[in-house]
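Sample entry copied in:
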Amino acid sequence: MKDLNRNREEEQIRSESKVSILKDYYSRYLIDIRGLKRSTVNHYFDALNNISRKLKSMGLVQEDIYEIGEIERLSEVREILFRDEEFMAQDKRGNQMYSSGLNNYYRFACGDSFSKLKDKVKLLDMPIEMNLRERAEVYRWQRSEIIKIQSLELAGYQCELDSSHQSFIAEKTKKPYMEGHHAIPLRHQTKFSVSLDVYANIICLCPTCHRRLHYGIVEDRFEMMSRLYEDRSSRLAQSGIYLSKEEFAKTSVL
């Protein structure tokens, strides 16, 4: 019954605007991880829906705030709103509902406290609709930098193949430098009916392990992928991604 009610709540939230990976994850985060009441969740999304309309009128987004996939861009947009007199006046009339909703979403996007969610992270796994390909110089599947950063936070900035591996401190984050790796590469997206750019498919790796997975000898790469499969297969299945161990290893190695 709890799962049924949760699914109905998520469907209601998603139906209010364009489906987005970040919106889907945010709704489950508020409901299942933070355990907020439905009325509170509605307030958060009402605030973000109004903010999205404001951003669209300013030409800062095409549809809504959830399409912003980079932290730096989200920070810029947040600062623009906080300098906008009309927005701040509206926020004051609404008892800071809009700034509170925006700040809460921003903290989520930054992955605040994600390192404490290790025991609950499986609650976030679910099938996600594919994003359409975007055209840069060539076509490529869209990927979210925010989801990558959140995945590094979930792993506590430790290499998930060997937590003893050390890395330097990055100037930008002031945290150990780690890299987000799609265990099943996005080049295989057309073989799946759901998105591969999801928490369950993104692995936190030190630079050495990451390069080794891409360029190491085949036997070592198969062994590394087999270890990742043992850790992620159930979460991938929960996200609608089903592969045998052999199929999983081949997606990256061959």
In short: Residues 218-238 form the longest helix (21 residues).
